[in-house]
Amino acid sequence: MSDMSSEGIPAPDGKADLIDTDYTIGQDNLEGKVVGLGFDIHNPVFGISATAVVAFVFYTLALPEQSGALFTWLFASVTEGFDWFFLTAANIFVLFCLFLIVSPLGRVRLGGKAATADYTYLGWFSMLFAAGMGIGLMFYGVSEPLTHFSTALGGTTVEDGLRTDWAPLGAAAGNEAEAMRLGMAATIFHWGLHPWAIYAVVGLALALFSYNKGLPLTMRSAFYPLLGERVWGWPGHVIDILAVFATLFGLATSLGFGATQANAGLNEVFGLPIGNTTEVLLITGITAIALISVLRGLDGGVKILSEINMGLAFLLLAFVLLVGPTLAILGVFGSSLLAYVEYLPQLANPIGRADTNFVQGWTSFYWAWWISWSPFVGMFIARVSRGRTVREFITCVLLIPSLVCVLWMSVFGGVAITQVVQDGYTLAQDAELPRQLFVMLDALPLATITSLIGVVLVIVFFVTSSDSGSLVIDTITAGGKIDAPVPQRVFWCLFEGAVAIVLLLSAGGLKSLQSMVISTGLPFTVVLLVMCVAIYRGLQSERANT
Questions:
Q1: Cα 544 from Cα 141, distance rounded (Å)
Q2: Residue 21's pLDDT is what?
Q3: CA dist 191 → 45, 134, 351, 353, 373 (Å)
Q4: End-to-end CA, the chain
Q5: Is residue 20 over pLDDT 90?
Q6: Based on CB atoms within 10 Å of each CB, which residue in 215, 275, 325, 511 is the most buried?
Q7: In the predicted model, what is the mean pLDDT of residues 121-127?
């Protein structure tokens, strides 16, 4: 790895097509000290982002009923009016990534022709999963397959010419085998190629324009081929501010889900009461732990926690696979992959759908959630992916994680569905979403131990997400500097927790979290679509000039 510059951005190793610009990283920054604490912030990105977030927190706390109504209206308006747009955009991201894998552009190496990887595959995958999908896999690993199975099995219902059920596609009324296949296919659709393509696009853009082109590690840099020097002005400011909002609310949604599930697990194991008070205390306590990780830095904090968490996650996965109906689960894995391939064209179709509740309530929300997470996960992936070729980068980020997600959902969802179909055990099916994982584990041996491991996983995923998210937001609001003063990361870490708390306490609760993530995800979808054009141009120039 080459020596780090004063801004923490490594220079290319070997030939690279550096962009000739007069802009220097941090030239618009304000530096100084307040009460002995240093700051190095981009003007005006930090000021506008921080002021807007503080104002949002106070508004939501001061007017909870009014804000709750607003969040509910936002969710309905965006999902009903733009579901086709979210589905179309996600399809474009997948096709673009597959094109780059087979294209000669895939031979371009991130960081220059002679660059070598900074992390081993184990360390790379561990950080990728812990930051990218952790809490979501824990929260939805049982509940989503079980929910889609149940709604598909129940069939369709129509009132006034419109479907009112939540089943995917045309359902599978009364057919347990087909309901399982359809339910698993719908789940994999939400956790497979499409979300990872979104992450891959952002991660590739940031890595290419930072490590190969010599530009700051911010979202605006990816748009230099389209905007030129104007990217350092207000067009770039708007892009970075949108990235901050999308990241913050995407993280807040995940932290809210994590808090409710950790609360449910602690209730199962220790009898801890369920409610807002406990969830607020959990978010507060876990945010404090995340601060310790922030102070330890990337290698000493999130990297170590990510590797520990991945070890625990696969230990729990192996346990459930072995003590559950192993052969049946392995069969679910194979049949689920085939069902995913079979149903993919219908699930990805953006027009003429009758299953509006499924499309708007599940798929549109998911795509907006993944898109809102993309600045966070994409920048984090870029930070740890220097030295990979574009083909290696996209293959690993797109295909391998998708297969692991399929395995995870097949094991946890497969066990839960098998408990219903073969054993008549419906307690998990009937439980609230945050409790379904722990109720499913309760029917297996060593339930107390596995539930406790589940709680630990949720909490550590919570910590790594908060730490990584504060790192990314701080990098954006520091003008691309990746070694800005630590107090700035502490600030963003605290406000991630604060936003999660106020949204949980608002009248809409988790619905408010979903509303804000889908509202910020909508404009950022446009940013990502334009980014694909910029990536293509950047890779063309890199291949032609190196």
A1: 45
A2: 86
A3: 32, 12, 21, 20, 14
A4: 19
A5: no
A6: 215
A7: 73
Are residues 47 and 54 in contact, defined by beta-carbon separation less than 8 angstroms?
no
Which residue has 């927790």 as its token pair? 497
Peptide bond into 44 cis (omega under 30): yes
Backbone dihedral region of 309: left (phi > 0), alpha (psi from -120 to 50 degrees) or beta? alpha
User: pLDDT tens for residues 152-191?
Assistant: 999 999 998 889 999 999 999 999 999 999 999 999 999 9
Per-residue confidence band for 35, with pLDDT thresholds at 50, 70 and 90? confident
Provide the 10 A C-beta neighbour count for residue 107.
14
| Residue in the structure block whose two tokens are 């055990």 | 425
Q: If DSSP states are collapsed to H, E and C, what string results for 475-528?
A: HHHCCCCCCCCHHHHHHHHHHHHHHHHHHHHCCCCHHHHHHHHHHHHHHHHHHH
> According to the model, what pLDDT value does residue 132 have?
56
Strands 158-159 and 162-163: antiparallel
Task: Report the candidate in 293, 302, 290, 297 with the shortest Cα–Cα distance to residue 255.
Answer: 290
Confidence of residue 131 (pLDDT cuts 50, 70, 90): low
- pLDDT, position 4: 34
Q: 491 with 477: CB under 8 angstroms? A: no
302's tokens: 């999130």
- Distance (Å, rounded) from C-alpha 129 to C-alpha 137? 10
Calpha distance 236→488 (Å, rounded): 21
Model pLDDT, residue 133: 60
Residue with tokens 């530096």: 31
485 pLDDT more than 50: yes
Q: Contact at 8 Å (CB) between 306 and 464?
A: yes
Q: Tell me which residue of 471, 467, 492 sits closest to 290, measured CA to CA.
A: 467
Q: Is 221 helix (H, G, I), strand (E, B) or coil?
A: helix
Q: How do 29-34 and 37-42 pair as beta strands? A: antiparallel
Is there a contact between 278 and 434 (Cβ–Cβ < 8 Å)? no
Which amino acid is present at 79?
T
pLDDT in tens, 413-422: 999 999 999 8
- Between CA 133 and CA 324, with CA 409 as vertex, the angle to 5 degrees is 130
Q: Is the dihedral of CA 281, 284, 287, 291 positive or negative?
A: negative
In 3D, which of 292, 126, 290, 217 has the Cα closest to residue 483? Answer: 217
Q: Which pLDDT value is given to residue 234?
A: 93
> Where would I find the H helices in 111-230?
121-132, 134-154, 176-191, 193-207, 224-227
Helix ranges restricted to H, 354-485: 356-358, 365-383, 390-394, 400-421, 427-430, 436-442, 447-477
Give the Cα separation of 529 and 535 in Å (integer).
Answer: 10
Which pTM value belongs to this model?
0.90
